[in-house]
Amino acid sequence: MPSDTFRPSSRRSGGKTKQAGGVVTKCSSRVAKSGSQAHSFYIGDQKFSIFTSDELSPVVDGDRVHFDYEVRRLRTGHRSEYNAVLQDTLVVEVPAELDAEVAGEVYVLSNPSMPGLVKVGYTTNTALKRASELSGVTGVPTGFKVEWSLPVIGDARAVEQRAHAHLVSHKAGKEFFKVGIEDAKAAVVRSFAELYPERAMLMDQAFSRRAEAELSRRADLAQQAERRAKEKEEEEARKQFEQSLEGRWLKEGTCRLVIRTFNSEPNRNFPSFWGKLVGVRYDDYLEFKLSPGQEKGEIVWGLAISGQISERSVWKTERFPTKQDAFDGMTRAVKSHGVANHSITVEVPNAMIETPPPLPQNVYNPKYVLDVSSIDDFVIRPVPMPVRRSRFS
Known about the structure:
Helix content is 28%, strand content 33%. The protein is of the alpha+beta class. The chain has three domains: 197 residues, CATH 2.40.50.140; 34 residues; 123 residues, no CATH class. The strands form four sheets. Strands 17-16-15-18-14-19 form a six-stranded mixed beta sheet.
């Protein structure tokens, strides 16, 4: 669990901010309902969220950080609470790659009951936990606030003692000094650099590498944003085209090749009861219709035979693997039925034609059936399946 201290908030009327710090784990990012970026992470078993306009999370797993936060409530019916990090207070003390080497912290604390004084000390835990411990001591009227801390790769006590030596002329008793916060910080940083010059340089190099990594991540995010914007633009253009007359014609229209027409237009009705009594009889007729379809992404050709023979309905379908097989099957069917009054057509949906012919001028119905003289030049392929994208992609 992260250590917390309390102090009045100057950011929200009547509220209070808390301080927290430690090693970051379980970083994640998402787009909040407000449209801003919600970056979340854990310290111990406590979750924190920070809302920014930047897609780049300010922390990564393994960073040692400290920050101020507020407990807020969601504007929903169940009024759930969450911990909102105050962005301008978030400080990465040690990049992830060096955190395992930190042996302790040297801190600078202040207390409202001790104006003008700061406490410079060290701990092998965290400055926030130490401040919490000191704030709970009987006789301290107000809590301590962590003004600044320096994680130390080395002996934190040795750095503290050397800082005390630099501030000795301002000593006000024990670990308290009558000095400004910036002067106290400078003394600690100087002491660390004097005792561990190579490790101080190591810290500088780690932050430099972190900055370079962030630039690389930011460039990657920019490329992803550019790709998403381009895909969105292309998707909008595609939708507009599909909703246009031309786009709907390519999707909903049909090309028809009429191979043979009826000798005479057939009567598609059946004689009524009274008609049958007086001997009314309608001529036989058949319609042969070929059309492509698809099964499991492969083209198949269907032959539909419909009509009337001896005043009985005829309906039959067959499937063929190729166009030639379908034509051969249709020829056999025409001969086997031997009905003189018949028609033969081939209908191909535009959606299955790679480059359909254009819709004739002055035609405004996209479901138009266009008569063509040949389908030999048509490249017939399966209907392209729509690309389904995840909202996380």
